[in-house]
UniProtKB/TrEMBL annotation:
Family note: Belongs to the tetrahydrofolate dehydrogenase/cyclohydrolase family.
Any GO BP: tetrahydrofolate interconversion
Organism whose genome encodes this protein: Parathalassolituus penaei
Keyword RNA-binding included in the entry's annotation: no
Pathway: One-carbon metabolism; tetrahydrofolate interconversion
Entry's EC annotation: 1.5.1.5, 3.5.4.9
Protein name: Bifunctional protein FolD
Length: 298
């Protein structure tokens, strides 16, 4: 029997630790950690994710500042808002919910966020730091996947990890984290010839392609640990349902452990966002305190 990696349960443990840290942070600094969430437009899934992020923040003792903007928001308005949030001492973390409406420049806005407040870990400074193994804010979904993998496997050293998908949000940072954990890492993508040749060798298989149930049993080595990052809505017999990139029913019997969809990686993404907010808040407040001390000293 494969282990079903329960993202709801694991995320509850992470959130519990964050709540404890947030209480200690309040005791130490006299303010709550603050998270600003920017949502542009009316995408229904994004509205659900933002609502969940704010609910989890409140439960953990993190202040949230929601900025809901209309779909026709201009680039200049969004740039100004991010600049204001960068300067706001009550805001320790900033996230702009993706995807943005097509007329807005995603790269420009993600690069405008102060890297110290970039709790999504998407700023080039944090991307670069991650890739050279320096302390950084780590993207939430791959961070959540690593917590799950460590829980199941312990030390990942020497494992062959294959990541299917090369997005900036998941595939690339996932590969960087696995490499940092001393895995042998392969990335498979849409131009890879005979991808199954590689995925069939994977001790760890991470699927992040956004294609419903694309990964069948013919992609998986018996005994592999499979992490399914995909969240795809499909219509089955007139009903909408969420499925992953992995065909769970067909693949599960082959595996040592596997994440379900829903209830796998998704909840860990939000828990790691809270974790990053605490990390950012602690670094910023420690810095500003030592800055003040320095000002007093001179
Ligand atoms: N700025 C960001 N934008 C986006 C990110 C991100 O990390 N930062 N990731 C995704 C969306 N996302 C968080 O924002 C996210 C997606 C899914 C879940 C989740 O818990 N899913 C549940 C199912 C939810 C449902 O019923 O629809 C699950 O898998 O169990 C959390 C966060 C893109 N944009
Ligand atoms: Mg995009």
């Amino acid at each position: 029997m494969a282990i079903r990696i329960d993202g709801k349960l694991m995320s509850a443990q992470v959130l519990d630790d964050v709540a404890t840290d947030a209480a200690a942070f309040y005791q130490e600094f006299g303010i709550k950690p603050g998270l600003a969430v920017v949502l542009v437009g009316d995408d229904p899934a994004s509205q659900v994710y933002v609502r969940n992020k704010i609910a989890r923040a409140t439960e953990c003792g993190i202040n949230s500042f929601k900025h809901r903007l209309p779909a026709d928001t201009t680039q200049e308005y969004l740039d100004r808002l991010v600049a204001d949030l960068n300067a706001d001492p009550e805001v320790h973390g900033i996230l702009v919910q993706l995807p943005l409406p097509a007329h807005l420049d995603e790269e420009r806005i993600l690069t405008a966020i102060d890297p110290a407040k970039d709790v999504d870990g998407f700023h080039p400074v944090n991307v670069g730091a991650l890739n050279i193994g320096k302390e950084s804010l780590i993207p939430c979904t791959p961070q959540g996947c690593m917590i799950m993998l460590r829980k199941v496997l312990g030390d990942l050293s020497g494992k062959h990890a294959v990541v299917v998908g090369r997005s900036n949000i998941v595939g690339k940072p996932m590969a960087a984290l696995l490499l940092q954990a001393n895995c042998t890492v392969s990335i498979v993508h849409s131009r890879t010839n005979n991808p199954q040749l590689l995925t069939k060798q994977a001790d760890i298989l991470v699927a992040a392609v956004g294609k419903p149930e694309m990964i069948g049993p013919d992609w998986v080595k018996p005994g592999a640990v499979v992490i399914d990052v995909g969240i795809n809505t499909v219509e089955r017999a007139g009903q909408y349902k969420l499925v992953g990139d992995v065909h769970y029913a067909a693949v599960e019997p082959l595996t040592q452990a596997i994440t379900p969809v829903p209830g796998g990686v998704g909840p860990m993404t939000i828990a790691c966002l809270m974790k990053n907010t605490l990390t950012a808040a602690r670094r910023l407040e420690t810095q500003s305190r030592s800055g003040r001390q320095y000002a007093v000293m001179v």
